[in-house]
Amino acid sequence: MACVRKWLHGWLRCTAAAVLVLSGAGCGIRKDEVLARKHPSNEGDNTQVGKIKIRNVSIVGPAPTAQEPAGASAPVYFTLINDGPTEDALVQVSAEGVAKTVDMSKPEIPMGARQLVWVGTGPYTVTLRDLVRPLTVGQYVTLRMRFRTAGEVTVRDVPVKNAAVASTLPSASSSG
Questions:
Q1: CB 56 within 8 A of CB 168
Q2: For 71-111, how does the pLDDT look when each residue is reduced to its tens digit (9 = 90+)?
Q3: How many structural domains is the chain composed of?
Q4: Range of the structural domain that residue 149 is part of
Q5: What is the pTM of this model?
Q6: Are residues 19 and 100 in the same domain?
Q7: How far apart are the first and last CA of the chain?
Q8: Are residue 61 and residue 145 in the same domain, yes or no?
């Protein structure tokens, strides 16, 4: 009887170890991969409307201990990705409760089918004008974007970033 008990105890231990190894190896997803999916590694907000992806939206603010005063202007940086088979265009950006007006460098920011467009440098810029209240680094605001075909989308939790540490801003040489 002691021999059977010893054999059964060993068998259970081996079976439990095999189940743990196989269950961990079989899932194929590591914890850090799951976290990366839930929390993107960029510094701005992301959203989508139709086939238009809006990535890494951020506002460049003042130095970390300063405020961008009411009445001032602040640039907005982001990337537009048109994953659709037809062209579209960003036709309006608004920032209710943040800025009295939002200027776009062109009347429309065009995006060809399956095209990526940087906004913030080069030919396409968006600027918050006549801020209605001071902006500080670390604050979050809400923007509204309207596209010719895809429609409107609210971009929530747009961070105000310090320009000196905002590592995701495209350079002028990479825009186009």
A1: yes
A2: 999 999 999 999 999 999 999 999 999 999 999 999 999 99
A3: 2
A4: 42-167
A5: 0.72
A6: no
A7: 80
A8: yes
